[in-house]
Structures are given as structure tokens and as C-alpha cells.
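Exercise 7.
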Amino acid sequence: MNSEEEFYDAETGLESDDSCEVSFKDALVFDSKRAKQENGVWERRKTLPAEMISRNNFSVWSILKKCIGMELSKIAMPVVFNEPLSFLQRMSEYMEHTHLIHKTCGLSDSIDRMQVVAAFAVSAVASQWERTGKPFNPLLGETYELTREEEGYRLISEQVSHHPPVSAFHAQSLKQEFEFHGSIYPKLKFWGKSVEAEPKGTMTLELLKHKEAYTWTNPMCCVHNIILGKLWIEQYGTVEIVNHRTGDKCVLNFKPCGMFGKELHKVEGHIQDKSKKKHRVIYGKWTECMYSVDPKVYEAYKKSGGGSKKPKQEHSCESEEADEMPEVQETVTVIPGSALLWRIAPRPANSAQMYNFTSFAMTLNELEPGMERLLAPTDCRLRPDIRAMENGDIDSSSTEKERLEEKQRASRRERSMDEEEWSTRWFQLGTNPHTGAEDWLYTGGYFDRNYTDCPNVY
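Solution. The predicted structure, written as C-alpha cells, is:
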């Protein structure tokens, strides 16, 4: 067995016409004895079947000590360090704040739309706060479907490549108001005390009514104290959101925490038009809320001594400085005249015992009675190792994970002997029409419910 096969499942990741409406409504007929309706909305679960498994008796150092400075795409991790979701499900958490997309569709001014799109881009990473568990690596050909009638959208995602690991998704409005799609290739490096994640890939949001397309990439993410101490997360880097129709641009700076933690979680930036004139300043924290204010008001506030700047701190995940979790308790200081763009939803009371899941994440692996006959056989909800972990059975989860990995290895060896190339089912490699870059694009047809050509991944 070569090294690639040995560490096969190693990559990891740390957003209608009548016929559409009919097929979507058909998909909601689960014949569920447990699901209830309240005001016409399905009541989803508020907790997991079992509390998270303790990691106190497991050492990640024994696995990672030879991997400092390396890219972690071929390092297998024990299942105990996972959370009971596939990366495809974790990726669907971009949709938690879909109400922001709906809001942009109703705005007539392009600058107003841009500032809400910026808030949506920030909200897409908010669920990562305190989420230190690793999602399960999707198997090649695995899929995930998320349909939310009350939020007016549906999403399909597929693991389209294994080496390198690439996950593609496509979400669409049920009333043909928007499409949101992208593909992510998470690159991770271990620096001795921390893991740095670069979520390579472009997000594309199309507002169909306005004939606009916005694109951006997500910030870097670093998980500190992998070996010893309390795990904590920071996001950092520059995110540029471009409106390809108007030329408007929003530049957001996710600030590193700095030596004394004064900048931890802070996001600050501005919106400019194609002539580079600044129209709005955006500020807040990706863990709390985002505000918008007039640039002149912002500058006057700064000159008056409000939010005085601290010396800039250089940052690197490979720094030798202590990775102590900064004790930053203050909330965002609101500049007079600011407009609230977005505020994070509170976590459920039992979140700390449930992998620090949000209320939205808590529902993603729920499998209602009767749902199995409607899902593709490749859907994450049907994956036995994730289901076992969710139920608190770590031994069965580990056994099933090993079985699935070996099944994938065997399938790959068989394709290699037959000189066959893997064929994706719902996405194909093409060109993003807005950026001109290579991208995985949805080919359509998933919601026709014809799954005869789906691979047997489980």
C-alpha cells in the first residue's frame, strides 16, 4: 500500500418556476411521525441524539509531531477529533443567513446591495466561532442536499475531487431571485501549535433580478493550541467582493488578533465605486455583528479619538509567540449614525455539549422518517460513520470510517487498472463566466430525483 492509499481520507476543511416548486414540495412529503408543523413550518430538532465525545484521553501530538510545516492533505486523524458532520454539510452553513440575500434582492441602490452582500460574506464564516472539531472528509462522489422552504432555497453539493480535495455547491432561490455557488479546496498546514487553513476557492452570488454577480474568497483561518491549552480560532486576511456589473468593490480586512488581542475577531473595510470613491465604511466582528457608516462620519469619529488605532501587530500562524487566548470581552463600539447590517443568532444553551453547533448546524444531519426514499443514495445523512458519531458510538464510527476509506481505495485501484477516469455526477469543471477562472459548475437535474447513475459510496 502506498502512502497516498494509507492516508486516503485525510484532507479536511475547517454559503422558481412552477416545475421547481412542484418538485421541491414533493421532496417535503416525508410521512414523518415526529416532525410537527407550527405556522406551516417544519419543527426541526434542537439538540443532537448524544453529547459530544470527550477528547481528553487522546493525543493529537503523536500524529502531528512529524508534520510541522507540511500540508495536511495526507495525514489521517482519529475520528474522535471530528464533529458529526461532513465538510459538505459544514459548507452548507453559508446558507444560515440567507435572509440577507433576500434583503439584497429588494434593494434598488447598488451600494446598498453591496453592503448587505458584504454582511452575508462575513456571516458565512460566523458559524466557525469555537467550532474546533474537524468535519468528516467527504468521500469521492458524496453529496448533500439541503432544502428549506421557509427560507426559499435549496442546495446541492458534491465531492468532485479527492486529490486535491474539492467540494462544490450550488444553491438556488425557489422564486428565481438568486443563485449562490462555489467550490472549495481547503489547504491546511500545521505549525507546531496551530493549524492554518486556506479555503481556496471563489464564492459567486448572482442576483438575477438585478443581473448582478458578486464574487469573493473567504479569509484564512487559524486554530490555535492544537497540542496543549484551550483551542481558539481566528480569521484573518483581506476579502475583496466585486460587483461585476457596476464595478463596485468592497474591501474587508479580517484583522489578526495582534500581540495583546485588541483586534481579535474584528473586521473593517469600505465600499468603493469603479472610480474608487468611498461610499460606506463597514466594521464590526465576524463573531457578533456588522455595521455600515458614512466615510466622513467614520473619519470624524476617528479624529475625535474614538477607536484610536493601536500599533499594528505582525501575525503569522508559525510565530513562536505564546498562543494564549486573548481575553477580549468588549463588544463592538457603535459609531453614531451607523446602520446595523447583520447580527449573529445566539447559540443554543446546550451548544458547548454539542460540538459548539449553532441551532442551524444542529439540524443538518437530521433524517426524518421517510426521507431516505427521496434522497440520493450518496447523501451525507446516509453515511454510517457520521451517524454513529452523532449517536455517541465512537467505536462504530471508527470502524465504519475505516471500512468506507478502504472501499474508496479499492474503487480507485479498480479504476486505475481499467484506466478509467472518475466521472462527477452533478458538477463539471468549467469556467466561471464572471471571473474567467476555472470553476466547478452545476449541470442541473438533481431535483428531478433520477439517481440511477449515482455511485455506491457507502
